[in-house]
Structures are given as C-alpha cells and as structure tokens.
Amino acid sequence: MTKARLLRLSVVLVSIFMILLIIVYWDNVGTAHFYLHTSFSRPRSPGAIAAGEDWEALPDVDEFLAKLLSSSLKQNNSIPRKTEQLLVQGSNKPVVSNLEENVRGYDWSTHKDRNSLDQEKLQVERQRTLREFCANSSFTFPTKERSFDDIPNYELNHLIVDDRHGVIYCYVPKVACTNWKRVMIVLSESLLDQGVPYRNPLDIPREHVHNTSTHLTFNKFWRRYGKFSRHLMKIKLKKYTKFLFVRDPFVRLISAFRSKFELENEDFYRRFAIPMLKLYSNHTNLPTSVSEAFGAGLKVSFSDFIQYLLDPRTEKMAPFNEHWRQVYRLCHPCQIDYDFIGKLETLDEDAAYLLQLLKVDRLLRFPPSYRNRTASSWEDNWFAKIPLAWRQQLYKLYEADFVLFGYPKPENLLKD
Q1: What value does the mean pLDDT take over residues 303-320?
Q2: Angle (CA) 122 160 180, round 5°
Q3: Is 322 exposed, middle or buried (0-12, 13-18, 19+ CB in 10 A)?
Q4: CB-based burial, 54-86: b 16+ in 10 Å, e otherwise
C-alpha cells in the first residue's frame, strides 16, 4: 500500500511539475514578456484589470493558470524592455517596392484641418452598438449564437497576439491591415533585421508582413500548448487589450476587387479569376498567366465578382477568401469583447488614440495611411450596372457587418 501511494504521489508531482514547465516557459514567447497596457476603462467594466487583482470567476483550470501568470507578472514587472526607448522614425518617405502600394500611394499630410473627435465617447458608442445587436435575439446571422469554445482553431487565425505589451489584434484585409501588422511586429519584436528588431514599421518588407510564420496567432496555440490552449486564450482575452479596424462593407468589396483583379496578381488570377471568367463570362481556353490575360484584355469584371459572391456554389467549394470574407466571420465580435473598434474612415485619429491608450505612442507612430481612392462616394458608380436584385442579395450577405459596426444601410443602392 505504501509503495502504491508513493507511486501515485510521484505521478501527481511529476504532472504538476510538467504543467508548471509548460506554463512558465511558454515556448518561445515566455511569460517574461507578459506585459499589460490595458489602461483605459471599458463601458461594461470600468478600469482595466491589473496584475495580481482578483479576476472574474473562472473554471478551476483557468483560475490555476491565472494565478501562475499573475505571480509571474509580479516577478517580471522589473524586467527592462528594449522597446521603451524612443524609436527612430526613419526617413520621411517610404521606399515603395510593391506594385499595389506604388499604385495607391501614401498620404503624408498631417490632416491638421480635420476636426478632432471625442474618441472616448466614440468608442463607447461603437461598443454599445456592437453589444446591443449581439444581444438582440431578433437580429440573427450565421454563427452568432455559438460560444467562443465552438469556434474552430482554424477560424482564429486572424487574432495576432503581442505578449510583450498585452495586445491582441484581429486583422481585417483591406482595412489598413498591412500597416497594423507592421505595428504588431515592431511591438512584439517578432522579426529581426540583421539581428536587431525592427523599429520603424515602414522598414518591414511587405512580403515579411504577410508571412504567417511572422505572427503568433490564436490558431497556433494548439500546436504550442495542446489541451491548455483554450484556457490560455481565455486568460489572454480577459487580460489583454483587444482591437480591430473595420470599414464600410461595400467599399471594402470594391477595394478588394481593385487590388486583386485590376492589378496583375498571379495567385488570384489562377485561383479566382479563371473560374469567374469561365462561369460568368463564358470564356474558354484562357491564358495560364495573368500577364497574358491582361495583354489579351481578359479581366474579371465587377459584375463577375458580385456573381461569384452570390453564387451558392462558391461557399460550398471553400469559405470566402479573407479579402472579402465578412468581418463577423474573421473576428467573431459577438464572442470576443473588443476593447477598441477603429474604422478606416477615421483611421488617423483612431490609430493615434489607440497607440496612446496602449502606452506605446512614444515607441512608434502609425504609418501614414494610403490615399483613400476607394471612397464611399464611388459606390453609386461601381454598382450602377449591378442589377437591383443582386445588390439586395449582396446587402443581406454583408448585413451583419453593416449593423454590428454602425454603418448606415445604403438605401440608395437598394431601391429603384
């Protein structure tokens, strides 16, 4: 009996020791970088939660992990941070090597003539709108009622985590996500240039920005932490500052079409343009390269693109590409309580305010925004040749994004 008890005790001790190792050393993103910058209050819960304070009621395993992380926070608060130095801003103009960025250009104006926004009230209103419609049982859309635990790991690949500053960013393509990813790389120091972390976001090459290996995302947690991954996600969602940026859904579609089908993009031509041209324009024997197709005047029309989005066969083949997938499917706003909701329409003001709230405004500035050539005033022209019935179906497809993020219904496009 004594040997059996000793054996059981040994197994328990070894298990606890292994759990401690997993949690404390955190693979290559250790808890030594578990810094918090959640200094602003939320409407539902005034004041951010500081390390060591009592957290909301958690399951036993979550509570155990939370205590471990809180104790680690206390020990690591004295560790100096490399990024606390003022960053050199670099040159006043970027080196633009990417075709898309070269076509669109940068806006380096200071926008001093813009009226300053009451950002705090603006955030309260945006979050209130989102929470009200998430709680409104009469407003429904796919996946609304599921819990966070119901979301598959592969659908969490847009949640980028910075453990150094306690930030989670859900990126939405065509909403300044390239530059926000650059900011996250600088903050997390996840990418080195000749052995030194990048300091100026615009110095980071675009091809590295969109490399999936560059960022720590939620869908990588399972591979790193196994069965503890969901518990760690929940803890970080409670402790970290979570933000996303959105855009008028129809304008975002126009922007996606322009950048992926009006510019020569080999990947999008083969994956999407060829099927669209065959299905909706009755073309056969299409060129295998985008340059040949463009040279022959073979391009996807906006009408082809809209047909593709509305075609029920599209989703049966594969989920929408991230560039036109709905924001509610990318970022799960009814399952994740976002602390900050930015909009492309107020990008400069929102970005400056967010960096200030995160207490990283001394470390870097948000890269200057592109000149917004895809403006909301263009919607009438772009949709002029799209049948009314298609426009109405398209609105239903993206209605949740319009409603949840406070964008007005485009009545002028939905009536004769």
Answers
A1: 96
A2: 55
A3: middle
A4: ebeebeeebeebbebbbebbeeeeeeeeebeee
Q: Residue 231 and residue 240: Cα distance in Å, rounded?
A: 14
Structure tokens at 270: 């083969």
Local structure of 167: helix, strand or coil: strand
**pTM for this predicted structure:** 0.77
Cα 157 to Cα 147: distance, rounded to the nearest angstrom? 17
**Residue written as tokens 């706003």?**
333
Q: 251 by DSSP, 3-state: which?
A: helix
CB 323 within 8 A of CB 256: yes
Residue 85 is classified by DSSP as S
Residues ≥6 apart with Cβ < 8 Å to 302: 254, 257, 382, 385, 386
Q: In the chain, what is the greatest distance between 2 CA atoms, to the nearest angstrom?
A: 85
Helices (DSSP H) in 26-118: which residue ranges?
Answer: 60-76, 99-104
In whole angstroms, what is the distance from residue 280 CA to residue 105 CA?
Answer: 32
Token pair of 76 as six digits: 């690591």
Question: What are the backbone angles phi and psi of residue 196, rounded to the nearest 5°?
Answer: -120, 135
Q: Do the strands 241-246 and 167-170 form a parallel or antiparallel pair, or are they unpaired?
A: parallel
Give me the DSSP letters along 285-298.
Answer: S--SSHHHHHHTT-
Cβ-contact 328, 141 below 8 angstroms: yes
* CA 293 to the chain's CA centroid: 33
Rounded alpha-carbon distances, angstroms, from residue 57 to 38, 73, 230, 239: 20, 20, 16, 13
Q: What is the pLDDT of residues 72-115, one digit of tens each?
A: 444 433 333 333 333 333 333 344 445 444 444 433 333 443 44
**CA atoms in the 13 A half-sphere facing the CB of 382:** 21
Three-state DSSP class for 169?
strand
CA quadruple 178, 184, 186, 189: dihedral sign: negative
User: Which token pair is 332?
Assistant: 């799960």
How far apart CA 57 and CA 226 sit, in angstroms, is: 23
Least confident of 46-50, 92-96, 147-151, 343-347: 46-50
CA distance linking residue 201 with residue 198, whole number of Å: 7
Secondary structure of the chain: what % helix, strand, coil (to 5)?
Answer: 50, 5, 40
What residues does 370 pair with on adjacent strands?
Answer: 106
